Amino acid sequence: MPMKTLDEIAIEHGTDKSTSHPLVCEGRGHGYTLWYEHFFEPMREMPLKFMEIGVGGGESIRTWLEYFPNAHIVGVDIVHDTNEYNTPGNKSIPRYTFVTGDQNSETFWACFKADYGSDWDVLIDDGGHSSQMVITTFKCMWPGIKPGGLYCIEDLCCSYASIPYFCPEGWANHMDLIKEMLDDINRGQRSLRRIHYTRELAIIQKSYV
Description:
Rossmann fold, 7 strands, globular
């Protein structure tokens, strides 16, 4: 029997990253899984160190646990104790650890790195989507991505919102962060290998050297 695709798994678990979700884009979903599969399929059986910021009801966490059978998944969210996937200390889910934290806080990320280390194969930022959160998290966690690793930022449409929550005063727009990285690649910034950009999603790969 052929292995299920990432999108098939994501639809089964109800994450809006898939191509079909009742609450997104007239039921079409964001469709991130089609792009993720291109990057993730070669790593599918590897013992990855994988993190997602933004746990919600655990829909994406269940997707990653099934798709990556040998990975250890870490979920980070400021919301906790509303379901088994955001309950600190819950050891009933093999290969999964939940950490409560505010992605706005450099102090939190410093403590997180002290506890959980670096050398992340994949980091997905599906957290609060504000400029402050996205930029702070990238500043703190990009150095901890391993060579060749992937840093993914979702729902970049929020950078165009007029709501102050998404683009707080005093912070650069987080789409500008992506545009600056394109300039950095052309200037030969050695830590950046490539950026894959599609609607609302940036997949940033770290250089191998």
